[in-house]
Amino acid sequence: YEQIRLVFPGLVGMSQAVGVAIVVVTGVWLGHHHGGFAWDGSAHQFNVHPLCMVLGMVVLYGDAVLLYRVFPRESKRNLKILHGSIHLLALLVSIIGLVAVFNFHRVSGIPDLYSLHSWCGVLTVTLFLVQWLMGLGFFLFPGASSWLREWYLPLHAFFGLFLLAVSIATCLTGITEKLLFSIMETYSLRAPEGLLANSLALLLLLFGGLVGFIVTREEFRRPPQPEEEALSVHFTSLTPSSP
Amino acid sequence: YEQIRLVFPGLVGMSQAVGVAIVVVTGVWLGHHHGGFAWDGSAHQFNVHPLCMVLGMVVLYGDAVLLYRVFPRESKRNLKILHGSIHLLALLVSIIGLVAVFNFHRVSGIPDLYSLHSWCGVLTVTLFLVQWLMGLGFFLFPGASSWLREWYLPLHAFFGLFLLAVSIATCLTGITEKLLFSIMETYSLRAPEGLLANSLALLLLLFGGLVGFIVTREEFRRPPQPEEEALSVHFTSLTPSSP
């Protein structure tokens, strides 16, 4: 058990390094190979879309999920507020990313919402918004009974990870689309842009794997704080093997 | 608890219906829109690839994962043998799917292994093979100590679901590739083929979600059989909240 506990800081550190690498590689890809970022309806505005989506729907989203494991000594209420706040920031960044691409399409006369990437993206962001509102209603507003919270908690946790997985899959379809639209001819010659964007996708999968692993391992669960024991008698049934 | 237990057959039934729908829709897509299946180095041979991959790496793979929940009264040894056998079948079907596309590429002079889809696909099938061999070594050969089995079981379960997720993400990049290669012009006009293949991708995500949900809910876990209680004293620490 102690051995496994020692692995934890390494895994969290790796997840954060991969998260930073994702944003940097996305920035280099669009900055170096596609001329950088702007908000003028041009292809440079399109570039805002992938950067915002990986930052919002993957890196910030993943970090909000990790919070409960990374700060086990912080009070539950503070963690909930921080979790909800980072997810709100992730949502706002994602919405900027969606506005960037819809606005670029409108200016350029490109049709919306025909591709698999767009279907998955709109579905994911919509379900994320629903999930965020339900989390607010169940866990932060005082109205929900402890029975309801206990019933919803595992559903919230499952759909949270499921949406992260769908979000990363959506990024992979977006990377495939972008490469086939822009370097169809040279992609099969192993153009540097193709190798870079393929590697970005592998980093996204690695980040999802690390976040998923850290939050699903029983031994990394947050032990209940002494002051919470008295408050929720059923809490132990949700954290069955916490020490 | 009883209420949730009643949901179980519905979820399993839905997963199986979605699994059948995935294979049927893939068959209709490639049969109706791409001329069907053959093994002659032509585009009809390429069509064998997607059909084998969704059948092997998603549907059979997912069903092998579900086994432990669907037959809770079957002996553990029989379930392990069936789990390993269905996964072996999934591997063989997937390898046929890989041979189909590599052979088609060779005959047609198309380069291999440059796209994100191919990177993810080769990575997934390779890791699946490693996972299968490790499962065989740890759980079916008598050599592994109960301590080693107990240590490896949650890792096996986590990587099993992670690989299913990566496998489905790989299918989505493959669908995106195939559509952009074959109907780039009409995809944005919402050609029926595009709508059909997009829907196939949503079915794949739904299948992954259902399998993931069924196997991660504590209340669907297989209760230890009476004859196993005496054999493994540590088993309860792996199924902390089983009834």
Features:
homodimer; about 240 residues; mainly alpha; Four Helix Bundle (Hemerythrin (Met), subunit A); about 80% helix; disordered C terminus; transmembrane ascorbate ferrireductase activity (chains A, B); transport (chains A, B); cytoplasmic vesicle (chains A, B); heme (chains A, B); membrane (chains A, B)
Word description of this protein:
Chains A, B: Keywords: Cytoplasmic vesicle, Electron transport, Heme, Iron, Membrane, Metal-binding, Translocase, Transmembrane, Transmembrane helix, Transport. Chains A, B: It comes from Gadus morhua (Atlantic cod). Chains A, B: The chain crosses the membrane at residues 7-28, 48-69, 81-104, 116-141, 153-175, 195-215. Chains A, B: One of its GO terms (molecular function) is transmembrane ascorbate ferrireductase activity. Two copies of one chain form a homodimer. Chain A has 243 residues and is mainly α. Residues 230-243 of chain A have low confidence and may be disordered. Helices cover 79% and strands 0% of the residues of chain A. Chain A is built from nine helices and no strands. The first copy, chain A, has one domain: Four Helix Bundle (Hemerythrin (Met), subunit A).
